[in-house]
Amino acid sequence: MGWSTASPNLPTRSDRRAAMRPELLQIGAFPPQVQAEIDADFHCHSLDALANAPALADAIVGIITRSNQRVPAEVVERLPGLRIISTFGVGYDQIPLELAARRGIVVTNTPDVLNAAVAELCVGMLLSLLRDLPRADRFVREGLWRQAPFPLAVSLAGKRVGIVGLGRIGKEIARRLEPFGVTLAYHGRTDQRLAWRHEPDLLALAADSDILIVSAPGGNGTARMIDARVLAALGPQGYLVNVARGSLVDEAALIEALQGKTIAGAALDVYDNEPAIDERLFALENVLLTPHIGSATHETRHAMAQLTLDNLRTFFREGRALTPVVFE
C-alpha cells in the first residue's frame, strides 16, 4: 500500500502564494495575456464586486486602471487601506490627485515607453491629413482615377508647426518633424532653452502656425485651452492635430470651425466623449478620425503593461514605485 506525505488539510505552495497576493481593485479591461499576468501576482476585484460586497473595501490595497478610465473619488474614499493607484497609460487626469496626495496614496503611470508610438501616429496622421490619403485611397478603389487626376494636396515641407505642450511626447514629435524641413515653435509654462522657439502666448503661437499640434496633459488646467479664439487665430489655412486628450479642445468650436472652413482641417485621435463621439464629425471631409490608438502597437502596449505591473510589484515588494507621479 502506498503512502502519501501530502495532507489535504495543509496548504500547498500555490495556496500560500495565492493567499499572499495583494488585493486590488481593477478598473477597466486588459487583454487576456496581460490579465493573466495581473492575476498571477494579484487578487483583483471589479467595481461591481466591490458594490455587491462592501466588506471588500477594507482588503483593497491597490488600484490597477487604464488612463482612459475614471477613478471615482468616492470609491477611493471608501478604501481605507489603499496605498497605490497604478495606471496603464501616461495620462492621470482621470485620477483624483488631490485626494491621493492628501491620503499619501502613490500614483504611477507609464511614461516614456509610449512616446515613440504616439509621435509616429501624430506624424502619420499629419501627413495623411495634408496629402488627403484616405480620400486618395478611396479614389483609386472606386475607379475614379480613370476619369480624372486626383486633386493636388498640401506639402509639409516649409510649414510652421506649433506644438502645444512640449513634454516627453511633444519633444518626440518635434524631433520626428525636423527632417521634414519645418519651422518649429512650442507653447508651455516655461522656456526650456531648446533649439525651438518658445512662445508663451498660445494665441500668438496659433496665429504664427500653419499646423498646431496638441500634446499637453489633460486636467482642469488645460481643459478647452484650444477654444474658438485659438482656432480663429490658426485661420483658414491652418490645421489642428490632437493626440493628447479630447478635453483640451473645445469640440463644439472645432466642429463649427471645420464646418465653416475657418480652419483647413483637423486630425483627431482623442475626443470629448469616447467612444460615443459627436456624429457631426462623420460628415466632414476635412477631418481625419482615429479611435484613440496613439499607443496601440503590440510592442508599446506590452511595454506599458510590464511597467504598470512592475510598479505594483516593486511597490509591494520594496515599498517604492518605479515611475511615481510627482504631485505639484
Describe this structure in words.
By secondary structure, the protein is an alpha/beta fold. The protein folds into two domains: 18-109 and 299-318, 3-Layer(aba) Sandwich (Rossmann fold); 114-289, Rossmann fold. The protein is 35% helix and 15% strand. The chain is built from twelve helices and twelve strands. A seven-stranded parallel sheet has the order 8-7-6-9-10-11-12. A five-stranded parallel sheet has the order 2-1-3-4-5, with helices on both faces.
Distance between the termini: 70 Å
Output the strand order for the largest sheet: 8-7-6-9-10-11-12
Secondary structure category:
alpha/beta
**Helix share of residues?**
25-40%
CATH superfamily (homologous) name of the largest domain: NAD(P)-binding Rossmann-like Domain
In percent terms, what proportion of residues is strand?
A: 5-15%
Tell the overall outline: elongated
Quick one: how many beta strands? 12
Low-pLDDT segments, ≥5 res:
1-18
- Identify the CATH architecture of the largest domain: 3-Layer(aba) Sandwich
Q: What is the makeup of the main sheet?
A: 7 strands, parallel
Family: Belongs to the D-isomer specific 2-hydroxyacid dehydrogenase family.
InterPro entries: D-isomer_2-hydroxyacid_DH (IPR050223), D-isomer_2_OHA_DH_cat_dom (IPR006139), D-isomer_DH_NAD-bd (IPR006140), NAD(P)-bd_dom_sf (IPR036291)
Pfam family, one: 2-Hacid_dh
Domain D-isomer specific 2-hydroxyacid dehydrogenase catalytic: 42-325
Itemize the secondary structure elements and their pairings:
Layout lengths: L12 H8 L2 E5 L4 H10 L1 E3 L1 H6 L9 E5 L6 H5 L6 E5 L8 H7 L2 E3 L6 H17 L1 H9 L18 E5 L3 H10 L5 E5 L9 E2 L3 H6 L3 E4 L13 H7 L4 E4 L8 H9 L5 E4 L18 E3 L8 H21 L10
Parallel strand pairs: 1-2, 1-3, 3-4, 4-5, 6-7, 6-9, 7-8, 9-10, 10-11, 11-12
Helix pairs in contact: 2-12, 6-8
